């Protein structure tokens, strides 16, 4: 290369460096929009200035506190704080950030407990995250979605057999206080161990002691290695509680968009709706039914629409949502429950009556439904549990009729005894999800009436015998039935003989 060419390259490099320095200096010297705090009240800040601020733009206050511009008026902006409002005072300056709120995402979040803005709250080291995603993101397009046809096993017999959940489905869990709603979500997370499903648990406005207990249970069952917990407690500002489920969904979407199957549990959306109502009333938005703002339906619909199964062209990942909502006095027709029932693909209703009788989990089969149904259920479950829900519902009607002292014929008595065995078989201890094989053997024994003669006090022991038999299956049979969910006539006969052998000692005692 000639000396002239080298000289020209050096000149070009010098001028390029000079332009970069000038541009950087110009940007730093450019006038920046600044605002001023006018008033502070219960986590809501009114500011003047910042004429260029956009809706839901992130604004920065002194002491490193951030807020979201939620109410844009001609002369002021209503900002929802994401921190302690006692650290601010009237007259403080406000700066625009030019971006919306985002949250860190990536593999490094697995096993961690974070708040909705991505800061760790588990006392461990800082998180080396892979990327950041906006908290509010559009739901996938319809053409980017695929049919839901693969089950997400909860490990809970009554759910997997009668109200199946598919990967990409949105199944609402609702019931009164202290009926076991959170337990179903936690059991489902625990059951994903070894199934290559990432789990996200979002605690909204929960007591710190309750979150600590949930964390302890997940650690005891070795579930934290594939789980992320996003948490806000009841003392956190309403703004943090408002963004919590959206932030948790963005964390989950990172894995879904990389072809992974993800489960997210929102616990619970009743507190989320109340936090949004508090924000809206403080922002002086007009109240509607039960003082909730008019966009409360959109609040949850845009959240839950992000849960889906992506097409193979988009990687084939899925995001399954289990939102939890609390009812009052068993009122499923209240405002927030009816909104969520219309948004989701089915619901699990937990009855306080069943809970009081010790029938746990207290799932009311008659009021629960899965709108995906058998399309997202293993073939073995469809074959064995197809008529189970109808049989159980008929038993409950007969039981109500028999309370009046009606005389029953022998056929009705047999149906009553069979129904009682179904009810006892569906009882399952908390934190004890069952594999597919154990559930299939129980369902087969119920379908063939093998447990009708077993004394009721021996039913739990008899089921334990079936669980032990399921653990001793041949690898080929276990692969076909317990992993792939298939059940040929030959396989069914083999399982039937194993079930009879496991239950023989219990039926012989009854005959003796």
Verbal overview:
With 512 residues, the protein is of the alpha/beta class. It contains 16 helices and 16 strands. Strands 8-12-11-13-14-10-15-16 form an eight-stranded mixed β-sheet, with helices on both faces. Strand 4 (66-72) and strand 5 form a beta hairpin. Helix 5 crosses helix 6, helix 11 (388-402) crosses helix 12 and helix 13 crosses helix 15. Residues 25-31 have low confidence and may be disordered.
Topology:
Blueprint: H1 3-29, E1 34-41, E2 44-49, E3 57-60, E4 66-72, E5 77-81, E6 93-100, E7 102-105, E8 113-114, E9 131-134, H2 157-162, E10 172-175, H3 181-190, E11 197-206, H4 208-220, E12 227-233, H5 238-256, E13 261-267, H6 269-282, H7 296-304, E14 318-326, H8 335-343, E15 346-350, H9 352-356, E16 369-370, H10 379-385, H11 388-402, H12 410-426, H13 436-447, H14 459-471, H15 475-483, H16 489-511
Parallel strand pairs: 8-12, 10-14, 10-15, 11-12, 11-13, 13-14
Antiparallel strand pairs: 1-2, 1-6, 2-5, 3-4, 3-6, 4-5, 7-9, 15-16
Summary tags:
eight-stranded mixed β-sheet; Rossmann fold; alpha/beta; Elongation Factor Tu (Ef-tu), domain 3; Lysin; 512 residues
Compact summary:
The protein is of the alpha/beta class and 512 residues long. The protein has helices spanning 3-29, 157-162, 181-190, 208-220, 238-256, 269-282, 296-304, 335-343, 352-356, 379-385, 388-402, 410-426, 436-447, 459-471, 475-483, 489-511, and strands at 34-41, 44-49, 57-60, 66-72, 77-81, 93-100, 102-105, 113-114, 131-134, 172-175, 197-206, 227-233, 261-267, 318-326, 346-350, 369-370. It folds into 3 domains: 34-99, Elongation Factor Tu (Ef-tu), domain 3 (Beta Barrel), CATH 2.40.30; 103-377, P-loop containing nucleotide triphosphate hydrolases (Rossmann fold); 383-511, ATP synthase alpha/beta chain, C-terminal domain (Lysin, Up-down Bundle).
């Amino acid at each position: 290369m000639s000396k002239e060419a080298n000289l020209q390259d050096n000149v070009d490099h010098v001028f390029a460096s000079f332009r970069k320095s000038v541009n950087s200096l110009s940007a730093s010297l450019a006038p920046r929009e600044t605002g001023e705090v006018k008033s502070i009240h219960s986590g809501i800040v009114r500011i003047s200035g910042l004429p260029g601020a956009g809706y839901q733009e992130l604004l920065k206050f002194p002491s490193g506190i951030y807020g979201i511009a939620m109410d844009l008026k001609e002369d002021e902006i209503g900002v929802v704080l994401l921190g302690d409002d006692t650290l601010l005072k009237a007259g403080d300056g406000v700066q625009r950030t030019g971006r919306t709120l985002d949250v860190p995402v990536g593999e490094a979040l697995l096993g961690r407990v974070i708040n909705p803005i991505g800061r760790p709250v588990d006392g461990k080291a800082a998180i080396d995250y892979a990327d950041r995603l906006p908290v509010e993101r559009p739901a996938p397009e319809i053409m980017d979605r695929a049919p839901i046809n693969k089950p997400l096993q909860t490990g809970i017999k009554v759910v997997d057999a009668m109200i199946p959940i598919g990967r990409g489905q949105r199944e609402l869990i609702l019931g009164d206080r202290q009926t076991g709603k959170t337990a179903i979500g936690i059991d489902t997370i625990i059951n994903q161990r070894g199934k290559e499903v990432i789990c996200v648990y979002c605690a909204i406005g929960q007591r710190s002691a309750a979150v600590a207990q949930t964390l302890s249970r997940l650690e005891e069952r070795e579930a934290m290695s594939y789980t992320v917990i996003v948490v806000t407690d009841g003392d956190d500002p309403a703004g943090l509680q408002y963004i919590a489920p959206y932030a948790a969904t963005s964390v989950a979407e990172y894995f879904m968009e990389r072809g992974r199957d993800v489960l997210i549990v929102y616990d619970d959306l009743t507190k989320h709706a109340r936090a949004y109502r508090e924000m809206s009333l403080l922002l002086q938005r007009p109240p509607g039914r039960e003082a909730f703002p008019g966009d409360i339906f959109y609040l949850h619909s845009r959240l839950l629409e992000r849960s889906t199964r992506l097409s193979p062209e988009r990687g084939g990942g899925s995001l399954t949502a289990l939102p939890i909502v609390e009812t009052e006095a068993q009122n499923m027709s209240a405002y927030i429950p009816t909104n969520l029932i219309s948004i989701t693909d089915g619901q699990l209703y937990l009855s306080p009556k069943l809970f009081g009788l010790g029938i746990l989990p207290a799932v009311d089969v008659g009021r629960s439904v899965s709108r995906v149904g058998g399309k997202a259920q293993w073939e073995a479950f469809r074959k064995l549990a197809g008529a189970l829900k109808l049989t159980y519902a008929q038993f409950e009607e007969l039981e109500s009729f028999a309370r009046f002292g009606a005389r029953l014929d022998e056929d009705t008595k047999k149906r009553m005894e069979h129904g009682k065995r179904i009810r006892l078989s569906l009882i399952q201890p908390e934190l004890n999800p069952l594999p597919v094989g154990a559930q299939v053997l129980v369902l087969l024994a119920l379908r063939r009436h093998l447990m009708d003669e077993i004394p009721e006090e021996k039913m739990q022991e008899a089921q334990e015998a079936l669980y032990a038999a399921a653990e001793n299956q041949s690898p080929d049979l276990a692969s076909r039935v317990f992993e792939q969910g298939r059940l040929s006539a030959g396989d069914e006969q083999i399982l039937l003989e194993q079930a009879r052998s496991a239950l023989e000692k219990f039926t012989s005692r009854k005959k003796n």
